[in-house]
Design brief:
By secondary structure, this protein is of the alpha+beta class. The protein is built from 39 helices and 41 strands. A hairpin with a 2-residue loop joins strand 23 and strand 24. It is a multi-pass membrane protein.
Length: 1212
């Protein structure tokens, strides 16, 4: 959702802005570049949307981001792309037919104006790759939708199946544009300009120019080198991401396709020219779909791995025409999601097509370009919702406070310099210099160092990162969503066994399904025929469950060739038969091989018609005929509860529910089978048109197939580690809900004693409001009319935890499927936070629903990680604070992190590295802040006597101390295990501010003591080249000692006793705070294990002690130090030692007692926690109506009700 405002260009404002840009030396232009809303308001005046030339857009989320877009005008005959142009005159006076150009060229506009008085101007703008057209009736800008919006299934067949004329195609193309998902890779020059215009780099440029003016060349060069390296690294990463995404999207995106025109003419065109309404012919050898299309005739086998993440061929059948089935439920609006069994999605691969001879496989184009499913996925990658992180928000506030301090110093310097009659040139340089001292230009490079080192460590353990800033955020993760199949569990299913039913009684479970006694049984016939398997290049492929089931019986599948299909003028049935090895061994003599072959071919089953698996119906069905039999058979398989409800009750065992519950509790996936002999009057032709409901009734229940989805070996251990670290885990899967719940129990996500509440949400229907039925999973299968009331101990207990962090880990969990989740999002907004607080299992979730779940969790202040392995997880991986892809295919393009090993063991490793990087960022930020303030104090004190630090002193501090320390203190590796504590999320927190402020005060006190104490010394005087405090008693050597220095000119007054004293004290202070702030356990290894840091600090300490206690004339001259008595050097040493002791003790006290001290100081009481989920958890502890009671219903009500938008009704 976005707010939209209309503006038109204002000439006098434009003139004023131009003058302002010239007067400000281009700075105003930069400001307007950074702030689009200022740019529009400064150059335009507000007007109505109908007349505007520019639109200003603002997101309605918490980020309130502004965008602007130019409104363009396009000549058109109609107002809507889907309207019928027949009533409009198509002939111009000279008799030529109107053709629409692809672009709104000037000659095209003139042509329309001249010959078509009926033409109109259509206004539109483009935002995030989507066109918004002006809608006169709604008086707003709307997205132009294709045939996926408000189009009935009957009209797809009756009105849209004839195709488009070329004129109609050209007209629609003006609205829908080129059918292409264009990911333009920006030129290096464009990326460079965008990167360089970052406010930090502009400030660095300003600083470098200032330093060069002040002849401070070396440090300016160092900053330039660091900035260039940083920019090059950033450009490389960003461009690499664009190239990867471009390559993924561009692969087979432009193909040649055949389309059927309204006059039945077949035309070959480029896929870029397709528009909604075109009839596309699907070639028999397959293609990559360049658009979203609904299948009108024929059958397709499609690989949808781009959407589902599973490289499993799916059978697509043509959309049924409601007008051909008068007994059907009636017409309905076509939806690509609801009718996905009939929809071919963009980017998916059509492997094979099956069709009747003379009939072509046709599909109606419904969506093109960025409106397709693939286009929406690419848009979510190109324009992700920004990830909010407190550290970065606080960093700006922290910098703002430094700017305020710099402003005070700036004013003080100007006033002090004017009072002391300093030249104007010096005043300008020194006053600006204090700003570059207070706000260190090296800060971005310093902050990046820890992240770069963490990225390098992650690479060593096989985790690749394309968004380094996310590493810090991963240190805050307190909830991780996991995909199930291929992530928590192994990819495939294994057949555990079968349990057949005879005479309405379960037989004992059988491990093998390919025994001789079962060879010709109906149970095995159902396993052999009831599937969607197909042969692709001689290899059997299809759904993994079907594949395992078919392999378990050892049969052979044979499909008819195209020649056979053409010969019989119809689709020849797929045939299945047992392999020779399944027949009794006694018959397999060498001289009987031919006889055996003939025997094996005598028992064959032909699959006459297939009703594909439907997730809505939770079953699939086939009609088959055994070779030689007159009557056909119907075989059905699916969810046990559904299959049992469609069978004759006398064939279903009495203990069906208890047996099923026993299997599901153990985590098995259970499939039920049923069979029915069809009437002999049903011919082959009748079967092809019969309604599914007529077949799927009065079946005989045959038994159960028990499949096992094994957990990956490392899954329970990893989840246990995360739980110990107070990190919540959630399962988000496309699988069945009961299977997901059982897997969640097996892996420890749901503990054995915990209750699972299933939320079954139903949309409004027949005047009834939307409602949620609450079931308890353990009692779900026993909820019959005769079942006893649920015991009070079955209702979850609310535990009061010692820590608010543990509140989410209570004794109950919610589970729901994607349909229920969608209904709850739409009709029960007030319930969403409560449900996601305890929601653990989300089953049958579509790709966009996974993203919505991540956003819902983020809305209650969780830091969310997402771990998945498919392209269907792309949106969620991109939206999460830390998305980890276990696949190196499409998903890795969207995911900030990609693990080389497909194992969730990468999750705790990433969180540990994230925590280490986050603590490193805090350490570096604190150190850089102290570095600025220490230098600011030194310079301000020296400015008071019209002195300053020398160039070489600045250079030593900035290069030798600060840069070396910053880049080595960031090298501490992560702590070896995850702890229950989390690092602070922001800089503006009590203990952290207390730490920084206390160290600032200590440094200020000790520098001031040194500055004032040196003036009290008996040998102190205003230093001149003739001064010699070192040899004050040896008057005879005064003239000889400095005879060579009399010619030296010190115009900046660098050489003096105050300068030398402050240089030594401040140099030691930098090292003291570096050690104090280098925190180790529990998030990083101790600093003494950081060899480079320890070595650097020791070398710098030794060097400083050496030049202070054993002065060298060469070093003193280079650093512009003056000679002071040895006893004063010892006193400086005492100041430094006391400073070090006080700093270390103060930091230790802040670490241990900081929170308690601040609480007592400001009289804090137990406050409402900041995180919304913790606050909500506290509220729910005292809510008597939560969790919902078993077998109750929550109905949606009008929001005006006092108790919110829902009420709970107990059903009896």
């Amino acid at each position: 959702m976005q707010e939209i405002y209309g503006y038109e260009l204002c000439r006098w404002k434009l003139v004023l802005v131009t003058v302002g840009v010239i007067c400000s030396g281009g700075f105003l232009l930069l400001l307007l570049y950074w702030m689009p809303q200022w740019r529009v308001k400064a150059t335009c005046k507000k007007t109505t949307l109908k007349d505007c030339e520019v639109v200003l857009l603002r997101t309605t989320d918490e980020f309130k981001i502004w965008f602007c877009a130019k409104v363009r005008v396009m000549p058109s005959l109609g107002a809507s792309p889907l309207q019928n142009l027949d009533p409009i005159v198509h002939k111009v006076p000279n008799g030529h037919t109107v053709h629409f150009c692809e672009s709104a060229a000037e000659e095209n506009k003139n042509y329309l104006k001249k010959y078509l008085p009926v033409s109109r101007a259509i206004r539109y703008f483009t935002h995030h790759s989507v066109k918004y057209f002006w809608n006169d009736s709604a008086q707003s800008f709307d997205v132009v939708r294709g045939l996926d919006d408000s189009t009935f299934c009957s009209s797809i067949h009756n009105e849209h199946s004839r195709g488009l004329t070329k004129e109609m195609r050209d007209y629609r193309k003006m609205f829908f544009g080129i059918n292409e998902i264009a990911v333009k890779v920006p030129s290096i020059f464009k990326l460079l300009i965008k990167e360089v215009l970052n406010p930090f780099y502009i400030f660095q440029l300003f600083s470098v120019i200032l330093w060069i003016t002040d002849e401070y060349h070396y440090y300016a060069l160092a900053i330039v080198i660091m900035s260039v390296l940083s920019i090059v690294s950033s450009l490389y990463t960003v461009r690499k991401q664009y190239v990867m995404l471009h390559d993924m999207v561009a692969a087979h995106s432009i193909v040649r396709v055949s389309v059927c025109r309204r006059n039945q003419e077949i035309e070959e065109i480029l896929s870029t020219n397709l528009v909604p309404g075109d009839i596309m012919l699907i070639p028999s050898n397959g293609t990559i779909m360049p658009c979203d299309a609904v299948l009108l005739s024929g059958t397709c086998i499609v690989n949808e791995s781009m959407l589902t993440g599973e490289s499993v061929p799916v059978t697509k059948i043509n959309l049924p025409n409601p007008s051909e089935y008068p007994k059907a439920t009636g017409d309905e609006i076509y939806s690509p999601e609801a009718h996905k069994r009939h929809t071919l999605f963009c980017g998916t691969s059509v492997i094979q097509t099956r069709f009747y001879t003379g009939e072509l496989v046709k599909a109606l184009v419904v969506r093109t370009g960025f409106n397709t499913a693939k286009g929406q996925l690419v848009r979510s990658i190109l324009y992700p919702k920004p990830t909010d992180f407190k550290l970065y928000r606080d960093a700006y506030w922290f910098l703002l406070s430094l700017v305020v301090v710099a402003g005070i110093g700036f004013i003080y310097t100007i006033v002090n310099s004017i009072l002391n009659e300093v030249p104007a040139h010096t005043i300008v340089i020194e006053s600006l210099d204090i700003i570059t001292i207070t706000v260190p230009p090296a800060l971005p490079a310093a902050m990046t160092a820890g992240i770069v080192y963490a990225q390098r460590r992650l690479k060593k353990i096989g985790i690749f990162c394309i968004s380094p800033q996310r590493i810090n955020i991963c240190g805050q993760l307190n909830l991780v969503c996991f995909d199930k199949t291929g992530t928590l569990t192994e990819d495939g299913l294994d057949l555990w066994g079968i349990q057949r039913v005879e005479n309405a009684r379960f037989l004992l479970p059988e491990e093998r399904a390919c025994s001789e006694s079962l060879l010709k049984s109906e149970f095995i016939a159902c396993m052999a025929t009831c599937h969607s398997l197909t042969k692709i290049e001689g290899e059997l492929s299809g759904d993994p469950l079907d594949l395992k089931m078919f392999e378990a019986i050892g049969w052979i599948l044979e499909e008819a060739t195209e020649e056979e299909t053409a010969l019989h003028n119809r689709i020849m049935p797929t045939v299945v038969r047992p392999s020779k090895q399944l027949f009794p061994e006694s018959k397999q003599a060498t001289d009987q091989e031919m006889e055996l072959f003939e025997l094996s071919t005598t028992y064959e089953i032909g699959i006459v018609r297939q009703f594909p698996f439907s997730s809505v119906l939770q079953r699939m069905c086939v009609i088959a005929r055994i070779l030689g039999e007159k009557r056909m058979d119907a075989y059905m398989k699916g969810a046990p509860e559904v299959i049992a409800s469609l069978c004759k009750q006398e064939t279903v065992p009495v203990d069906f529910e208890s047996v099923l519950e026993e299997y599901t509790k153990q985590g098995f996936r259970v499939i039920a089978l049923a069979h029915r002999k069809l009437e002999s009057k049903l011919t082959w032709h009748k079967v092809q048109t019969i309604n599914r409901d007529a077949i799927e009734s009065n079946m005989d229940f045959m038994g159960l197939i028990i499949m096992q989805n094994k957990l990956k070996q490392e899954t329970p251990t990893v989840l246990e580690d995360l739980h110990k670290a107070n990190i919540r885990t959630v399962m988000v899967t496309g699988d069945n809900m009961l299977t997901a719940i059982s897997v969640a129990r097996d892996c420890g996500m749901i503990l054995p004693q915990d209750k699972v509440i299933i939320a079954e949400a139903l949309p409004p229907k027949d005047g009834q409001a939307a409602r949620i039925n609450w079931h308890y999973a353990d009692t779900l299968t026993r909820c019959t009319s005769s079942s006893p009331a649920i015991n009070s101990e079955d209702i979850p207990v609310k535990l009061v935890h010692e820590s608010l962090e543990d509140l989410q880990m209570t004794k109950y969990h919610f589970a729901m499927n994607g349909k229920s989740f969608a209904v709850i999002l739409e009709h029960f907004q007030d319930l969403v936070p409560k449900l996601v607080l305890h929601g653990t299992v989300f089953a049958r979730m579509a790709p966009d629903q996974k993203t919505q779940l991540v956003e819902a969790l983020q809305n209650v202040d969780y830091y969310v990680g997402m771990c998945g392995d498919g392209a269907n997880d792309c949106g969620a991986l991109k939206r999460a604070h830390g998305g980890i892809s276990l696949s190196e295919l499409e998903a890795s393009v969207a995911s900030p992190f990609t693990s080389r090993t497909p194992s969730i063991s990468c999750v705790p490793k990433l969180i540990r590295e994230g925590r280490a990087a986050l603590i490193t960022s805090f350490c570096v930020f604190k150190f850089m802040a102290l570095y600025s303030i220490i230098q600011y104090i030194s310079v301000t004190l020296l400015y008071s006597i019209l002195s300053n630090l020398g160039d070489h002193q600045f250079l030593f501090i900035d290069l030798a101390i600060i840069l070396v320390v910053v880049f080595t203190m960031s090298l501490n590796p992560a702590w070896k295990e995850l702890v229950a504590r989390r690092p602070p999320s922001g800089l503006i927190s009590g203990p952290l501010l207390c730490s920084v402020l206390s160290q600032i005060i200590i440094c200020l006190v000790f520098q001031t003591v040194g500055f004032l104490w040196v003036k009290q010394q008996p040998w102190f005087e205003r230093w001149t080249p003739e001064s010699d405090a070192c040899n004050i008693l040896d008057a005879t050597n005064i003239s000889s000692a400095h005879s060579g220095n009399e010619t030296l000119d010190d115009e900046h007054n660098i050489k003096n006793y105050e300068n030398t004293t402050l240089f030594f004290i401040s140099s030691f202070q930098y090292l003291i705070v570096a050690i104090v702030f280098s925190k180790g356990k529990p998030f990083r290894q101790p600093c003494y294990k950081n060899f480079l840091f320890v070595t650097s600090v020791v070398v710098l300490y030794v060097f400083l002690f050496f030049i202070m206690l054993h002065p060298s004339e060469l070093i003193d001259t280079s650093f512009e130090l003056v000679c002071v008595p040895y006893e004063w050097r010892l006193r400086i040493l005492i100041i430094v030692i006391v400073n070090a002791i006080v700093s270390v003790l103060m930091e230790e006290a802040v670490d241990r007692l900081g929170v308690c001290f601040l609480s007592s100081l400001f009289g804090y009481r137990e406050k409402t926690p900041k995180a919304k989920y913790m606050h909500l958890a506290q509220e729910l502890l005292v809510d008597p109506e939560w969790p919902p009671k078993p077998r109750t219903t929550t109905e949606a009500k009008v929001p005006s009700q006092e108790n919110g938008s829902y009420q709970i009704i107990t059903l009896t």
